[in-house]
Every structure is written in C-alpha cells, then in structure tokens.
Design goal:
Number of domains: 1
CATH architecture: 2-Layer Sandwich
Largest sheet: 2 strands, antiparallel
Low-confidence stretches: 125-143
Order of helices and strands: EEHEHHEHHHH
Number of helices: 7
CATH class: Alpha Beta
CATH topology: Nucleotidyltransferase, domain 5
Radius of gyration: 17 Å
Shape: globular
CATH superfamily: Ribonuclease H-like superfamily/Ribonuclease H
Number of strands: 4
C-alpha cells in the first residue's frame, strides 16, 4: 500500500505540498504541511503558520498528539471535517481524486519509486503534455 498526503489551499485549490510514503503515519502527514509553509512563508520555525487553519479528517495521523503538537508549534489551528462527510474537506478530496484519475488508475506499480515519480510530478506538466497532444490533432490545427 502507498499513502499520499497532500496540502491544498482551499482559497485557490493550489497544491502547496504533497508526499508519497510506504508508511502513512503522523510524520508522513506533516511533510506536505511543512512543504507548504516553506514555500509560502520561507520557514518552519515556531509560529510560521500563525493565522492558518488546517482542514483535515479524523484519521489517526491527524489526531495523534505528535501531529497536533507540531501544528500547534507552527501556529496552525486544526479544523476537523465532520465524520463521514468527505465533502466538508472537499477541496483536498477532489485534488486527491483528480490526481488518482490522471496518474494512478490504469497503471500497475511494483514499488513506491515509480509511483512517487508520477504522483509527485508537477500536475501542470502532466496537463501540458495532454494539451500538446490535443493541439496536434487535425481538427485542432484547422480551427
């Protein structure tokens, strides 16, 4: 089994961090959040995420003391989605669904490395290759 953790900005739907791991523990779940803090604010020091709210489900990764202590250290407020209501975490759920549809379904991966390469590759690059293929069709050239 391979775990994918993502951090998605609910305002613009942009992926701020993504991590693929063989073990889906609380430390793997923290990785995309630290990626997002580094990218947006330049550091992961105390209070670097002050004012942010993190929407997540009730998985054991997110309810563990280690996870909650770390996001508290960063100044990020937890916001748990309603139990059995994935639409309350809809932006991230849709991002993960789209990623599965574009990169994962229909492929068989024998280990995590090729899967991680596909899953973590920039989505705009994958979309650009699809658009280039569409533009090369005869109907696209004549219009």
């Amino acid at each position: 089994m391979v775990w994918i953790f993502s951090a998605v900005d609910h305002c613009d739907g942009m992926c701020t961090g993504i991590h693929a791991a063989k073990i889906g523990d609380r430390f793997a779940a923290l990785d995309p959040i630290s990626q997002g803090l580094l990218a947006e604010f330049g550091s992961v020091v105390a209070d670097s995420g002050r004012g942010l709210s993190l929407r997540m489900d009730h998985g054991s990764q997110y309810t563990s003391d280690d996870f909650r202590d770390q996001i508290r250290f960063w100044g990020v407020a937890p916001s748990y989605a309603f139990v059995a209501e994935p639409q309350t975490n809809g932006v991230a759920e849709r991002f993960n669904r789209t990623m599965k549809e574009q990169a994962i379904h229909g492929r068989i991966f024998t280990n995590i490395d090729p899967f991680a390469d596909v899953a973590i590759s920039p989505i705009p690059a994958r979309e650009a290759s699809v658009r280039m293929h569409v533009k090369s069709t005869p109907s696209a050239r004549t219009s």
